[in-house]
Design goal:
Keywords: Signal. One of its GO terms (molecular function) is sigma factor antagonist activity. The chain is globular and about 50 Å long. The longest helix is centred in the last third of the chain and has 12 residues. Helix 1 runs antiparallel to helix 5. It is 19% helix and 47% strand. It contains 5 helices and 16 strands. The strands form 3 sheets. Strands 1, 2, 3, 4, 5, 6, 7, 8, 9, 10 and 11 form an 11-stranded antiparallel β-sheet that branches. Strands 13-16-15 form a 3-stranded mixed β-sheet, with helices on one face. A two-stranded antiparallel sheet has the order 12-14. Strand 6 and strand 7 form a beta hairpin. The protein has 2 domains: 91 residues, Phage tail protein beta-alpha-beta fold; 115 residues, Jelly Rolls. With 240 residues, the chain is α+β, with helices and mostly antiparallel strands.
Length: 240
């Protein structure tokens, strides 16, 4: 068995065998009511899926906070919303309203934000006062990117295949080069990954993880390459 195929076996092992439980702070999901608002927060290792009071389905990536009130949310983080009726998502830089399914990446600590439309129709507008305050209508295959520091909002097109896979919840690697796999892990779990060592020595990766947690994926990766890793909140370090 060559090294690049090792991850299949280890991925199966990591998802089906007993392991040391992560710390409470890593798995903690909180739900708090404050007046008419509902505060929902995910843990730092896995996604959280919730059905909001208006029947909108929300999939929260690790480290995400949403505050729900009256058919809409305020978002700090990375989340997918599947809204059967008009629904509003507000971030620091954007206001988006519509029906359908779309993913929004908008961490308050970051300058840039983006939204990708999987299906439906969304109207996006800047959430702040700007000389250029025109709205954009987005449909499946459209995305919007915004950077408040330079007051720029752009509408682009993208391939919906990756978002469809992300929404389905199965993370797959098929002879994926190591650097590409690292980018997939960053996008999938909403984390940053720092690699220390010679990346050219790392082999391609093959494996499949259904509804996997970040610690499960990293444990399988460490056994397959091999490498060492550490996870601290939303930052991963890999030592080759």
């Amino acid at each position: 068995m060559t090294r690049r195929y090792l991850l299949i076996a280890f991925a199966f092992w990591s998802c089906h065998s007993a392991s040391a439980p992560p710390s409470l702070s890593d798995t903690l999901e909180t739900t708090t009511h404050r007046g008419d608002s509902l505060f929902l927060e995910s843990g730092s290792l896995a996604r959280r899926t919730v059905v909001l009071p208006d029947t909108t389905l929300a999939v929260l990536n690790p480290g995400t906070l949403v505050v729900y009130a009256r058919h809409g949310v305020r978002l700090d983080g990375d989340a997918f919303f599947d809204a059967p009726r008009p629904f509003t998502v507000r971030t620091r830089n954007l206001v988006m309203k519509g029906t359908g399914g779309w993913r929004v990446s908008a961490f308050a600590k970051d300058e840039g934000e983006s939204a990708e439309i999987l299906r439906g129709s969304i109207v996006a507008v800047k959430a702040y006062t700007s000389p250029d305050s025109e709205s954009d209508t987005l449909v499946s295959g459209n995305m919007v990117m915004i950077n408040r520091s330079i007051d720029l909002m752009e509408k682009e097109t993208y391939d919906t295949t990756e978002l469809s896979t992300w929404r389905a919840g199965t993370l797959e690697f098929r002879h994926t080069p190591f650097d590409s796999a690292v980018r997939r892990i960053e996008d999938w779990f909403g984390v940053t990954v720092e690699v220390r060592g010679d990346e050219t020595k790392a082999s391609a990766i093959t494996g499949s993880f259904a509804q996997a947690r970040l610690d499960e994926v990293m444990r399988a990766l460490a056994l397959a390459l091999p490498c060492k890793y550490s996870i601290k909140k939303y930052a991963v370090t890999i030592e080759l």
